[in-house]
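Translate structure to sequence.
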């Protein structure tokens, strides 16, 4: 394929917004994680062609603010759905917390998600019981018994 047929991409807030929407149409994400992804993508495509990285950063933050306002990004809901998904894979609360932290979810949203998991999925409504539930799911998935 000839490289001359490729359309030249120019950095703009619209391009950034469309890139974010494209990503969010495929994956759910926290605002912090989406920020990292957009930064990497912008730098990879435009690198030295944009003189000010602060321009990129500003436009990314504005895009995320707009997406939050439109409720395309909701860190609380993301934390809950991601923690349920991890619990169903047999992950204990410590791993769930660490995973959410690595994805840029703040501590309050993590605690809220763990609390909701505890009340929804454990019989005794304790974190230890929730970890027991996760362990039993893990054992069933790995066919250890």
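Result:
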């Amino acid at each position: 394929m000839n490289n001359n047929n490729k359309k030249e991409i120019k950095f703009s807030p619209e391009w950034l917004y469309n890139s974010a929407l494209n990503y969010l149409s495929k994956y759910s994400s926290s605002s912090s994680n989406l920020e990292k992804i957009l930064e990497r993508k912008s730098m990879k495509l435009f690198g030295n062609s944009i003189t000010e990285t602060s321009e990129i950063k500003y436009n990314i933050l504005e895009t995320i603010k707009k997406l939050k306002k439109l409720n395309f990004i909701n860190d609380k809901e993301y934390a809950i759905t991601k923690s349920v998904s991890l619990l169903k894979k047999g992950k204990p609360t410590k791993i769930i917390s660490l995973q959410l932290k690595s994805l840029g979810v703040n501590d309050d949203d993590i605690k809220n998600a763990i609390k909701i998991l505890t009340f929804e999925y454990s019989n005794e409504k304790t974190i230890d019981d929730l970890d027991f539930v996760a362990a039993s799911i893990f054992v069933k998935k790995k066919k250890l018994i």
